[in-house]
Amino acid sequence: MARSMHVRRPATLASLAAELGVSRTTVSNAYNRPDQLSPELRRRVLETARRLGYPGPDPVARSLRTRKAGAVGLLLTENLSYAFRDPAAIGFLEGLALACEDANQGLLLVPANPEKEDVASVHRAGVDGFVVYSVPDDDPHLAAVLERPVPTVVCDQPELASVDRVGIDDEAAITQVANHLIELGHRRIGVVCMRLARDRNDGFVPPDRQRAAHFHVQRSRLAGLAAAFASAGVDWAQVPVVERFDHNTSCGASAAAQILDRDPGITALICTSDILALGALNEARRRGLRVPQDLTITGFDGIHEAERAGLTTVRQPVLEKGRAAGKLLLDAHERTRPRTVTLGTELILGSTAGPPRGAEERWFGP
Amino acid sequence: MARSMHVRRPATLASLAAELGVSRTTVSNAYNRPDQLSPELRRRVLETARRLGYPGPDPVARSLRTRKAGAVGLLLTENLSYAFRDPAAIGFLEGLALACEDANQGLLLVPANPEKEDVASVHRAGVDGFVVYSVPDDDPHLAAVLERPVPTVVCDQPELASVDRVGIDDEAAITQVANHLIELGHRRIGVVCMRLARDRNDGFVPPDRQRAAHFHVQRSRLAGLAAAFASAGVDWAQVPVVERFDHNTSCGASAAAQILDRDPGITALICTSDILALGALNEARRRGLRVPQDLTITGFDGIHEAERAGLTTVRQPVLEKGRAAGKLLLDAHERTRPRTVTLGTELILGSTAGPPRGAEERWFGP
DNA sequence: GTGAAAGCGCTAACAA
DNA sequence: TTGTTAGCGCTTTCAC
């Protein structure tokens, strides 16, 4: 690391005390308990500190002694920088930051590359607790967090019996989408979903992989869809489900393409995120398919971009999730049982879902 | 803070060593220098650690000993959560996060309420260095950072002779905007700018406040405009400049309204940020003014939303700024002189700037 | 109001 | 390969 122009010579509390001819306690008090010494002495201490270039008590040493770091650690599924690219993650972070600043706590973003097993960054994090945002149930970083003797709150996934959690009812939420499409008359659908496990599988998802998904959120959404459409007489085994490891609009577009290529008869594409749906929308446009006349597309999350695009989707309170997670973590109450906060969602009827093309012919025709 | 279900009893490296009948060094080595002891012994150590619920070396104690925190601190002008609401700040953060993850460093967001003088959070931050993002030159948090014996890099502002800095040439950049408008024929302009100092002044800005602005970036932009328009024969003292403390579209709208109410003859509104310009655009629409036929509006930053709105603006490489700041800080080279990175900007010709209304009559008429 | 003593939990020389 | 010694810089009883 570069040496700054402002590096001071290493004066310490002890050397300051020696210089002043007082005890270390007195110097410490000058900083931490102004009322414990005379204003005059305090002035002298601070004055001498300035002269010696003493920067005040070392935060790390203080943390060691007080057993408080004054910061919350955040563990994400993705590379650190991804958090600033995904609108839903940004909203979550804003909420979490809100909770942290209310409690005057720092927020430490822990670098955790999902494609690496290296958990040293978790071990090195000097924090009083962790918030874990949407990671697979077999994430080694998560395991490392849980080994740390500090409180932890998980947002979204995984669901752990002994850990505080904030989330939504994914199955119920996606069921609203499914029922809406079923009512509109859709029976031939395709599904685009996010990463189901830590291994990259960009393509069709066989049923066993759906059921074994290490991301509870995605698993629930698929399960919800399967149940709803099965009730409507759809054979789920025939429904094309395509997975994408990365999460951006290009992936949404290519996944949509993959489904439409294989099964052009599809009338609706259900995406498990707005980002993917926005990509699917692009692909539909590219193919000259009108939405929703030729193809219905739905998303999930309710990000601004989706709203602007008029996407039919489910809104979930991302900011509130972040805030709730922070509050849960920073809440002073000592609790014995793990707490769960389940937030509400709302079906947003946009302009990208409509009756299937040629519905009459298919359902009421000859 | 809530007690987690995962709090272990406090086994330490020493107690583990005692239990095993080996020295603390050996246990330490088992974690930090696997090659320094036999695989067999290491296995025993780790195995016993698990049995005792020893979570591995305490990160804070380790930091104290090694004098490395493994994290970079970030100080922002605004409340923590603001960083996730401003697209330019988000871009900067993404770049900084990129640099941090490359170096395997954590990123600690330090809570620093700009309306409070409390700098304790800076003192408590266990970090190896600071990045300071766009703060006023008299910010007490900045002063506290500079007192800390760690390297520091400032992005944008303030300009400090002895501190590494990343920024752009604000005066040159805004001059491009000014010259563009001057060429189009604008002589009666208004300016909407961001906060000029730590005190809230939502309204017109007298010349002395412009010159005394504690935010170097805003000061330079105003100075650049003043110089360019003076060259074009405009009396800068007559140009209405309105300041807003908060940074959002509502503020941009109300500032635009304030100027238009006072001086309806204005033909162009120069805003020192895209967010403010987007707000001004809203206000123009609300008043039934066509842009650019009735009113020209320009921004600064080049955020996505501006692009979508077709705003005429200056694009600055926000992500690159973040990355450069991180690189500068984490760069291993020991440097003696402070370094400065000045990044390029680009005038974006959108659709919100055009010739002034009735330009002919005014300039070539009777 | 001030000081002495006792660690917080760990790592890094160096010695064995 | 393992252990001994010596702190990192600070806060906190508890006496005075």
TrEMBL record, chains A, B:
Cite the entry's keywords alphabetically. Answer: DNA-binding, Transcription, Transcription regulation
For this chain, one GO molecular function annotation is: DNA-binding transcription factor activity
Q: Which residues form a coiled coil?
A: none
InterPro entries linked: HTH_LacI (IPR000843), LacI/GalR-like_sensor (IPR046335), Lambda_DNA-bd_dom_sf (IPR010982), Peripla_BP_I (IPR028082)
Under CDD domains, the record lists: HTH_LacI, PBP1_LacI-like
HTH lacI-type domain location, by residue? 11-66
Which PANTHER family does this entry report, sorted A to Z?
A: LACI-RELATED TRANSCRIPTIONAL REPRESSOR, TRANSCRIPTIONAL REGULATORY PROTEIN
Protein name (Swiss-Prot/TrEMBL): LacI family DNA-binding transcriptional regulator
